[in-house]
Amino acid sequence: MEVVIHGAGLPGADEVKNAAWIKKKAVANTQLVMALQQELDAGEAEAIAVALEAEADVLLMDERLGQETARHLGLHCVGLIGVLVADRQKKLIDAIKPHLDSLRDAAGFRIGDDLYARVLDDQGELES
User: Fold this and answer.
1) Whose CA is closest to 24, among 32, 12, 16, 36?
2) SS3 89
3) Closest residue by Cα to residue 5 from 38, 46, 36, 34
4) What Rg, from alpha-carbon coordinates, does the chain have?
5) pLDDT digit string, tens, across residues 28-42
6) How far is it, in rounded angstroms, from Cα 95 to Cα 118?
């Protein structure tokens, strides 16, 4: 819901809102959500709770504290950059750089310059 509500009008928001493969699921364990909200925002807390309830194989989350919390609770977490790296390794995409640039420029995705350079260098895409 974070993308659809808070990201309304931004690239991808309508696609997420209308995607048939995305299912909304209410959290059953609201006490866990409230406890997690002591350190995390509501979206991260609910995502972790739903992933635990659904016994999810993987949780897509970019925030470091959210990832650490999810891992502590036994969840496997991957961030968007990790998805791009996996897609490149599977040859689903030719390069990561155009996707990272688009995320930074069009979607306002925050990625530090050091991480940006490290990912591109690791993937052999860092320009001299």
Assistant:
1) 16
2) helix
3) 46
4) 16
5) 999 999 999 999 998
6) 14
